[in-house]
Amino acid sequence: MDHGALQTKPAYCTLVNKSDNSKYVCYSHTKAGSFNIGLTNASEVWSKDFTEDMLAEHGKNVALKSAEDYISKIRSTCGNGSASVTVQEDGAVLQLGVSPGSVSVTLPRLSDLEGREELRDLLFRMADSLKLAETTGGPSSFSPGKSQFRRNAGFEPRSQQTGPTVVAKKRLPGDSLINPGSRKKKPATGVAFDDNDDL
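The structure assignment produced for this chain is given below.
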């Protein structure tokens, strides 16, 4: 494995387990010289640290050479719905993809105290990641599964005109619809002849 293969930015994605529609947040980050892959359903946490040697050994069978390769695999499988979780008594198996080419990672369950600390740290890392994305204007490392927050251009508000605007005049009663500004002509009523005028 290349030198520095563990160095990577934190990454997050959501995962919906097709078997029971349960939702998870799958995350990864570098801490204390190891690459961590974690999973939580907001009440329980499963997590595993990989040293460079462990990652290299695990990646031999699945052709993943670095932490970035793992992150890419996690994001793509969460995004296309091919990731799944099998919860066991003392851990969880994260299945990334379908055979052939699938990757299976067993994550031990953290104790309640460790889980609370990990959830707190995860929350602050996600907040820092979002803040960094806002200040730099770049994409955040949060990647929701199935593109839940993708904007649809058909429903975006129309941009406002920057040129002069024309204000329509209010039509007064009797004004012509075809030729605005001119009054409607009243129909002819005829001429009234008075017999008394001839006398």
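Interim note for the steering committee: The chain is about 25% helix and 25% strand. The first helix runs from residue 52 to 60.
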